[in-house]
Automatic annotation (TrEMBL):
InterPro entries: AtHST-like, UbiA_prenyltransferase, UbiA_sf. The keyword Transmembrane applies. One of its GO terms (molecular function) is prenyltransferase activity. Its main location: plastid. Residues 29-52 are annotated as: Disordered. It comes from the Eukaryota. The chain crosses the membrane at residues 103-129, 149-169, 204-223, 235-257, 283-301, 308-329, 341-361. PANTHER family: HOMOGENTISATE GERANYLGERANYLTRANSFERASE, CHLOROPLASTIC, HOMOGENTISATE SOLANESYLTRANSFERASE, CHLOROPLASTIC. GO terms for cellular component: chloroplast membrane. This is Uncharacterized protein.
Amino acid sequence: MQIINQDNKYHKFSGTKFQLHPRVLKATVKASSEKNQSGQNSDDATSEDKVLSQQKDGHNAALWRNWDAFCRFTRPYTVIGTISGAASISLLPLTSARDLSPAFFVGLVKALIPLPFMNIYVGGINQLFDVEIDKINKPYLPLASGEYSMAQGKAIVAASGLMCLAMGIMFQSPPLFFGNLGALLIGTAYSVDLPLLRWKTKPFLAAFSIVGLPLTSHLGVFYHIQKSVLGRKTVFTKSLGFTAIFLTLFFISIAMFKDIPDVDGDQEFGNRTFCVSLGKKKVFSISLTILLIAYGFAVVIGASSSIVLNKLVSVIGHCTIASFLWLRASSLNLNDNASVQSFYMLLWKLLNAEYVLIHFIR
């Protein structure tokens, strides 16, 4: 047996067999073990990172699904429309730039805060009593699809209604409180299935509800600013009169049009809406005619203004919108619910545009 020492490394030869020195062998085994353990730890860390990443993605997806369901339940486009309308109406009582005081902005905030809760209540209570119909007409809604339980829906609706009323009391503004209370009562009468109620199944009462609900709220905001904030006498101004007439016509049109995609479910459950009684085409024709009358009325009133700028903006603006509306209506396919829904959303956008134009009627 021969032992060779080379660079402090010991190798032992026995015949043709090669063996490591015990100390070298021990060090090699230890290094290999540490390497394997390090690799295993690295694999474990990678696996743990993947699990955490998957959990995070799952959590984010769950949050998004919950938010999406909440938006479908609360219908943000109606909330935006109500807030933009109230903000616009709040400017009508102003007579000069000096009225844009800190007190005005505080009063405006007080007027706007309860409105989302009012909208959620009105839209939510309608869904609570329309679950079976919505399974046919709007199966994507959370209650109809089963994403929300009835208990969850009732909790959201009850909390929203109470918050709306509580804020009206807390802000100590009678016009604001009674305006919101009136809107909540109309919304309840429209949807709740009780004797003499469930107005949505009676065409004229349904139209009254669709018109009366926003007008009641808007009038509350107007007189809240005029009386409670600015401290002035209650006056029915020209701009408010125009706004009330125009919005009445506009919301009558919306009240008729909104039931077009719901004909199947309404027929099955015996809801005698205008669409069920008259048919889609006739209802759409009447709805469009009412809208064009509203814009024609706006052009006439705008043309009578003594201020040249107001006259030009009002006449040109309303003529442009009416022309655009006519073009879109001429290409609408009433048998395509997606097309009908797109046109319905257009009406809400045009309503927001009108909330700008009403300030040129002075």
